Amino acid sequence: MSGVNVPKLRVKPKKIKGISPCAVEMSSLVTCWASTSIDDARCAEVAKNLISCMQKAKAPGKARSSVNFHLARLGKQVLGK
After folding, report:
1. What φ, ψ does residue 4 adopt, rounded to 5°?
2. How far apart are CA 60 and CA 78, in angstroms?
3. Is 19 helix (H, G, I), strand (E, B) or coil?
4. C-alpha distances in angstroms, 12 versus 8, 59, 67, 68, 73?
5. CB 21 within 8 A of CB 53
6. CA distance 30 to 40
7. Which residues contact 75 (CB under 8 A, 6 or more apart)?
8. Do 79 and 71 touch, CB atoms closer than 8 A?
9. In terms of C-beta density within 10 A (0-12 exposed, 13-18 middle, 19 or more buried), how is residue 47 classed?
10. Which one is predicted more confidently, 3 or 79?
11. How far is Cα 45 from Cα 25, in angstroms, rounded to an integer?
């Protein structure tokens, strides 16, 4: 099989859309700004809640799929490389 161009087997990962952990706090802040002005002192507590939520929230880790690893491993066995 030398000299034969064999395509690599690959699977595209699914894109998972998650809900933001601070969406409620952000919505509350925007609602407060819409009902009052941006510089209003009444929105300060809501802004502090959003800031603390954003500091506590951590970025989700990238989940690694092993499908491509297994396809490459099995492809070598099937194709005889």
Report:
1. -90, 130
2. 36
3. coil
4. 13, 22, 10, 9, 17
5. yes
6. 12
7. 6, 8, 9, 81
8. no
9. middle
10. 79
11. 11
Q: State the DSSP string of 36-75.
A: S-TT-GGGHHHHHHHHHHHHH--PPPPPPPSHHHHHHHHH
Amino acid at residue number 54: M
Structure tokens at 78: 């099937």
Q: What is the DSSP string of 4-45?
A: ---PPP--PPPPPP---TTHHHHHHHHHHHHHS-TT-GGGHH
| pTM (2 d.p.) | 0.50
Dig out the tokens for 17 from the structure: 């859309």
Backbone angles phi, psi at 60, to 5 degrees: -70, 140
52 has a pLDDT exceeding 90: yes
Sketch the domain layout of the chain as residue ranges.
20-57
Residue type at 31? T
